[in-house]
Design brief:
By secondary structure, the protein is α/β, with parallel strands linked by helices. It has 27 helices and 20 strands.
Length: 829
């Protein structure tokens, strides 16, 4: 049976609860991921003599299950995993977590209960990988990354070095041109591979499997990386644990004093590493440079190691480094000049601050390319520092941010305020080799200048209204409906006056002349023709605004025409990754023609829903033997099992938990509420009416009790008591009626799933679930257009609502009032 990623993730994260208390996330990740590894390789390779991982007798997950309740469970698990490691040359890699460690797991019964419960979680059906087809869609690899991301978040700032956010990894993977690789013998390398996610993601961008190589100093993290490549179905991937600077593992086959060279390299090395020179062996890294990188900052040491490890004339790389490498001086400046003069840098991408778990400082991606250096005339730069969303205490790139960065970089498209191709002459001659992105791209928001004239004489400056982007091109008549001409009728300062004259009655443009002034203003001014509180209503009810919504709906319908043949004909051979690629590219194409809706925002609506729900649904239809008929399946919802308390008498025995209580049900593909709305509108309305009647009765009852209560005691008069009991009986009867209606509706709704026709399934799943949710997201963007316009208009109105003379006069009046009050109290100013 196919499983949802969300179910898998939930089960894995629940397993972490079993270990909390004795250690932090940076430690319990080793235990959870080790068990995930054992479970996966057992399901995939047990009884397979040709499997990539050998499963010796007594070292499978089934043997782990047999240890549940064993008083020596921790010791026996360590022996089992050691046996599996030894059979696959993984000793020191997959057996770093010690399950018999009492300081972390607990002693005696606590250890037995904790590890028994942990193994039980991995027995859940959603963690059965024997027969599901998920491996082609990287379900296990994605689950691994899900855990790594959550571990990095939970373990805090200092423990995040083992994980590069997947969003950033995807950018590096897509900007090194690996998707166009034609050499099936090509290699990819990460000299600071951490848990391996960046390296694996980059390798997966290639059109065929590549040989992958990684090195990681921390032995525990290197173990995670080795498990990661196996879980991603790349068991041949090489991961070595050692210091990349003092003991680089990958050396030239013909000369071990030189580094091996690779076709592609990706890296997210530790920022500003201070001890990089400890035990340093050069291996030719610094032969082409007049100076060494600073002893207390290893950023350029990593960069030069990567450059030296790139194949001559063809090697490509992308590395994440702190922004300081772009502009710092001294030795780094000398090295940077050398690299720029050799035309090794193809591009630089500035990222938002606070993306990474180990640091909050902003970073950049430096894209290196040894191909066509002789013909390279500049560096393509992107300032993507403003595109992100807050996610807890970190920032996170959205799908739209990733797509915009990647497509802009790969097409070398110049976008004002975002991207630019900068000639070497400008970098070298004008900026003396300084690569700081703000020198070349101004991505700052335009300053919101205020008009002194409007503050003095009133009105909203025409320039401010006209500068509201795009709106008036789409809604020209709306502008006339909201704004009218404003005259500066008069103002007095001693004997000076100002007069406003209209150039014409049809244009709200005033030329303001101030007597005895040296210059005259030619700026126009507007006034609101409606009340401030009516601005939003005026916009949303405007005919042009409503017409624009029709265009939005029409564009979405055009996209649905494209999507329908794909989403209504899913087959086992389909790839969910290809499906979302087609759907997202088409939605971008369709919505490019609409001015006000940002196509990247629409793209985000689709991708966010895909990642949250729709991808799971599509995978279920593709992978399950029932296909679309899986929509007929409903599942019981069971309460979470409670922790079983054991007495001393039972301490040596495993006490079997009771079967969890069923507390509800839900459709596996089609949510219950969608079915209720489609087929049971009258029944739902009857329940709503009954509940409204009950609410009314209860309100009347409360009012009756209040009116007939004194000193917290209800009146004991017979008529009062009789009416009280009548109310009680009525409320009880109504509640029973509602409960009966709900029970009957719930039963009929569940029965209705069994009778779904093929056309009903298509309507419920594709139209009422998928399309409706995406459409609602796009409609929210349309509503946001009105909200943004309203906010800006009100902001400008309130800014100039009271002129300076009016405020001065009001202040003077208030000062007089205060003085008068003080005088009455005997104080004199």
């Amino acid at each position: 049976m196919a499983v949802k990623k969300s179910q898998l993730y939930s089960s894995l994260w629940a397993s972490c609860d079993k270990l909390r208390g004795g250690m932090d996330a940076s430690q319990y990740k080793d235990y959870i991921l080790t068990l995930l590894f054992v479970k996966y390789v057992s399901d995939k390779y047990k009884d397979d003599p040709y499997g990539a991982i050998a499963i010796p007798d007594g070292a499978s997950f089934e043997d782990l299950v047999a240890l549940k309740g064993n008083k020596n469970i921790g010791e026996e698990i360590d022996k089992l995993i050691a046996k599996l490691a030894e059979a696959n040359n993984l000793t020191g890699i997959i057996n770093n977590a010690h399950f018999n460690d009492e300081s972390k797991i607990g002693k005696g019964d606590e250890m037995v209960d904790k590890l028994t419960g942990l193994i039980a979680i991995f027995q859940k059906p959603e963690l059965d990988f024997k027969n599901n087809k998920a491996e082609d869609d990287d379900l296990i690899g994605d689950a691994y990354e899900y855990l790594m991301r959550n571990f990095a978040t939970a373990s805090g700032k200092s423990k995040g070095q083992f994980y590069t956010p997947a969003e950033v990894s995807r950018i590096l993977a897509k900007v090194i041109d690996i998707s166009n690789c034609t050499d099936k013998n090509a290699t990819i390398y990460d000299p600071a591979c951490g848990s391996g996610s960046l390296l694996i993601r980059a390798a997966n961008e290639a059109p065929f499997p590549l040989a992958i190589y990684g090195q990681e100093k921390d032995i525990s993290t290197a173990g995670l990386a080795k498990m990661n490549v196996v879980l991603h179905n790349i068991p041949s991937g090489e991961i070595h644990s050692d210091n990349t600077f003092s003991d680089p593992w990958y050396k030239d086959d013909n000369d071990d004093t030189k580094l091996r060279k690779f076709d592609y390299i990706v890296a997210n090395p530790p920022f500003s590493m201070k001890n990089w020179m400890d035990g340093l062996k050069p291996y030719g890294r610094f032969d082409d440079y007049d100076e060494l990188p600073p002893e207390k900052n290893g950023d350029y040491a990593w960069l030069l190691h990567i450059i030296k490890s790139m194949k001559n004339n063809t090697g490509k790389a992308a590395v994440i480094l702190p922004h300081g490498v772009l502009f710092r001086g001294n030795a780094e400046e000398t090295i940077r000049k050398n690299i720029i003069d050799r035309h090794l840098i193809k591009g630089i991408i500035g990222l938002p601050a606070n993306l990474f778990y180990g640091t909050g400082i902003p970073a950049c991606i430096i894209v290196l390319d040894k191909e066509n250096t002789a013909n390279r005339t500049g560096i393509f730069m992107i300032d993507a520092s403003h595109g992100f969303i807050k996610d807890g205490d970190k920032n996170r790139l959205r799908e739209q941010d990733i797509y915009k960065i990647v497509t802009t970089f790969n097409s070398m498209t110049e976008v004002p305020g975002f991207s630019r191709f900068v000639p070497f002459a400008e970098i070298i001659e004008k900026n003396t080799y300084n690569l700081n992105i703000p020198r070349y791209i101004d991505s700052s928001e335009k300053e919101d200048l205020q008009s002194i004239e409007a503050h003095l004489y009133g009105g909203i400056p025409q320039e401010d209204i006209d500068n509201i982007p795009h709106f008036w091109n789409v809604f020209p008549n709306l502008k006339k409906e909201i704004f009218g001409e404003y005259k500066h009728e008069s103002c007095h300062a001693e004997n000076n006056s100002c007069h406003a004259e209209l150039d014409s009655a049809s244009e709200p443009l005033n030329r303001v002349q101030v007597d005895n002034a040296n210059s005259a203003s030619t700026k126009g001014f507007y006034k609101l023709l409606i009340q401030k509180d009516d601005v939003h209503k005026t916009i949303t009810e405007n005919a042009e605004f409503l017409e624009y919504n029709k265009k939005v709906n029409k564009t979405f319908e055009e996209w649905k025409i494209f999507a329908n043949p794909i989403l209504t004909n899913l087959k086992p051979a389909d790839s969910n990754k290809e499906i979302i690629l087609k759907l997202s590219e088409e939605i971008l194409s369709k919505f490019t023609k609409l001015e006000l809706l940002d196509k990247y925002d629409v793209y985000q609506v689709l991708l966010a829903y895909w990642n949250e729900t729709m991808n799971d649904d599509v995978l279920l239809v593709i992978q399950d033997e029932l296909g679309y008929k899986l929509a007929k399946v409903t599942d019981d919802i069971k309460e979470e099992p409670k922790e079983i308390k054991k007495s001393k008498k039972d301490s040596a025995k495993e006490k079997q938990p009771k079967e969890p209580k069923v507390i509800g049900w839900e459709g596996r593909l089609i949510p219950k509420q969608i079915v209720l709305d489609a087929f049971f509108e009258a029944e739902q309305k009857a329940i709503e009416e009954a509940e409204e009647k009950l609410n009314q009765t209860e309100s009347e009852f409360e009012e009756f009790v209040e009116e007939n209560t004194e000193d917290d005691e209800l009146s004991q008069e017979p008529e009062i008591l009789k009416k009280y009991k009548t109310y009680e009986a009525s409320i009880k009867s109504q509640k029973k009626t509602i409960a009966d209606l709900k029970k009957k509706l719930d039963e009929n709704c569940r029965k209705r799933y069994d009778s779904f026709t093929d056309s009903e399934i298509t309507d419920l799943l594709v139209n009422r679930k998928w399309y409706k949710t995406i459409d609602q997201g796009i409609q929210n963007l349309y509503v946001t257009v009105a909200n943004h316009l309203t906010k800006r208009i009100v902001e400008l109105y309130e800014r100039y609502e009271n002129t300076l003379p009016e405020l001065t006069e009001k202040l003077a009046e208030e000062e007089k009032e205060v003085s008068a009050h003080l005088a009455q109290m005997g104080f004199k100013l």
